[in-house]
Amino acid sequence: QVQLVESGGGLVQAGGSLRLSCTTSGRTFRSATMGWFRQTPGKEREVVAWITRSDGSTYYADSVKGRFTISRDNAKNTVSLQMTSLLPEDTAVYYCTATGGSGAFDYWGQGTQVTVSS
Fold it and tell me: Whose CA is closest to 107, among 115, 116, 96?
């Protein structure tokens, strides 16, 4: 059974930092692109960042550029998201994801809550 498990969420004041981690099991994601999405109530899930396996290319949503950094450890099949200068609008449930054979984000974690207080 494929599992992606997020950790590191919590409550932080605006301007603070958090580091999210995602561990995987049940399947290796050697060639997968891995990433993070987030979702708030009543809104669609939106991409935050992703990172490829092949050359480590990254993508960031405009709203997080310069504040968030995505990284991965291919040996451990983990992906992390370092979040700094957090804003109240970063409050959301953050989901770890990985692509499947089709190239779509087919695998998802259960999510971890990040709450930024003003």
Answer: 96
